[in-house]
# Entry
Amino acid sequence: MGALLGLGGGLVITGGGVLFDLLHHSRGFATAGFAVLGVGVLLGLPLLVGVPTPGRLAGLLLTGIFLLVMVPYGFRGAVLDWRGEQVRATVTEVRHQREPRTGGVTHTCRVLDRKGRSSWLPDSERCDAHTRPGDRYAIVRDPGDLVAASTSAPRIGFPVLVAYTVVGLALMAVIGAQTMGRSPGLRPG
# Structure
């Protein structure tokens, strides 16, 4: 039962990470939903499998955090690696938005490629406070607009994404099984 709970928690995080990338047009909603989902799984899973030892708790939390960070980043890079095309694009709009939580400023650029397709580029090394409409960049974008465009080459391919995700899910399942199997109050009687 603990293995299923650990695996289920890992799958929820993985699915949320993929969904986070697929909802790139409504980034605020996707970020809030993914944060709530991740925190819920990371806090709720140890309670469901029983009170783990500090080592197992650390393993469960670190593996969950690893999946929380790696899946959204890796899925976008893998899709752009698999289907992405490099195109020249011109900046048509730049948005500078204050972040109330951090006090910093986030920059988002709308670019238009030669085929007339527009994409929003998140805050990056090329979309910053100095970016102006008319600037030109080489971007990598998905022809079907499945994930957000990027100003840099994809860093993670599908084989790496799949391997890391499988290892993360297996670790969550093993730690969940070991924790639940050793919890004194949850043994079948």
Remarks:
- Helices lie at 2-22, 27-49, 54-83, 158-182.
